[in-house]
């Protein structure tokens, strides 16, 4: 539609519907152009000017699975794989043939730094020099927290028993496996001597879980004044009691043992005293799970005859489980062990 000038003779008046349509188009045009012409509001102002709903935010949740790995406890016994690995190391270092070497002269020729002196020679030097630190006279007693006799420093007590010191590890491995021992268990050794076996139990068990009754003063001296400090095991607080006659009263009335053992001890004790000890300990052995192990023989029992022994054990609340043998890892030796338990009550 054309708009005519007012003076034109052909001018015609606009109709009302046409005028309304024209105004609507103009309003629409202004509405479309206005946002582009207006300045962008500041972020702070936009919060007040916009009444729009908050945008929809999609949250993605990622599930993270955390796996807690608990380290397996150290194995008690040496495995065949361990032995195979060690033999391979000996072979790769040309050490395997040394096992066949015979004679002191041939053995000593192999030395490249190991002190060849005997224990007697070492003891002589220690005594001559007032200890390995060579402190003189009045200063000789003020530099050592735990002064130790020279005989212990050269470890003469390692030869005081009937088999090599290394045999203590064999005893520990057998007993720990046979009794399914765990660190929280309570253990009693009857006659722990210089801790040839006990050191391994003390290291394995939690603090205060190892008890021992020992009558020999020199053995106790070696255990307390040398072995525990030298092995860094004082913090384990084993309870080592000097005593005999199977008197366990110092260990307390409420203690319950998971393992009680006597390694080559009952051989040297009268049968009557052995039975006294069993009577006092039977009630302190944990029912069903607890074990008593005795090495070498059980003549205190067999001398009574099988039926009589079984009857006396039953009176104490004990029963015989069986006989075991255990081979040594390092030398030609095996031990025989006899197992007893307390049936469930």
TrEMBL record:
InterPro entries: SAM-dependent_MTases_sf (IPR029063)
TM annotation in the entry: none
Superkingdom assignment: Eukaryota
Protein's name according to its UniProt entry: Methyltransferase type 12 domain-containing protein
Species of provenance: Brachypodium distachyon (Purple false brome)
């Amino acid at each position: 539609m054309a708009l005519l000038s007012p003076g034109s003779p052909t001018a015609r008046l606009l109709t009302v519907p046409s005028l309304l349509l024209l105004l609507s188009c103009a309003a629409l045009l202004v509405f479309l152009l206005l946002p582009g012409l207006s300045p962008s509001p500041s972020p702070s102002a936009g919060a007040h000017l916009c009444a729009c709903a908050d945008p929809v935010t999609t949250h993605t949740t990622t599930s993270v699975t955390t796996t807690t790995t608990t380290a397996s406890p150290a194995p008690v016994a040496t495995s065949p794989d361990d032995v195979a690995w060690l033999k391979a190391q000996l072979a790769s270092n040309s050490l395997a043939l040394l096992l066949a070497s015979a004679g002191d002269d041939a053995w000593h020729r192999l030395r490249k730094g190991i002190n060849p002196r005997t224990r007697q020679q070492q003891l002589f030097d220690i005594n001559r020099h007032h200890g390995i630190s060579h402190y003189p006279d009045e200063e000789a007693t003020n530099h050592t927290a735990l002064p130790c006799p020279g005989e212990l420093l050269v470890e003469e007590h390692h030869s005081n028993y009937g088999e090599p010191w290394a045999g203590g590890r064999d005893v520990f491995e057998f007993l720990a496996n046979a009794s399914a021992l765990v660190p929280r268990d309570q253990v009693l050794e009857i006659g722990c001597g210089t801790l040839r076996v006990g050191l391994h139990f003390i290291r394995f068990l939690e603090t205060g879980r190892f008890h021992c009754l020992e009558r020999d003063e020199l053995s106790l001296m070696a255990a307390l004044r040398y072995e525990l400090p030298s092995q860094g095991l004082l913090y384990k607080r084993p309870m080592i009691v000097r005593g005999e006659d199977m008197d366990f009263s110092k260990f307390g009335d409420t203690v319950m043992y998971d393992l009680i053992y006597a390694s080559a001890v009952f051989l040297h004790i009268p049968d009557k005293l052995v039975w006294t000890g069993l009577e006092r300990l039977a009630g302190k052995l944990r029912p069903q799970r607890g074990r008593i192990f005795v090495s070498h023989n059980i003549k205190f029992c067999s001398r009574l005859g099988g039926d009589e022994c079984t009857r006396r054990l039953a009176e104490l609340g004990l029963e015989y489980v069986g006989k075991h043998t255990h081979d040594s890892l390092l030398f030609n030796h095996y031990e025989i062990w006899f197992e007893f338990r307390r049936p469930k009550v």
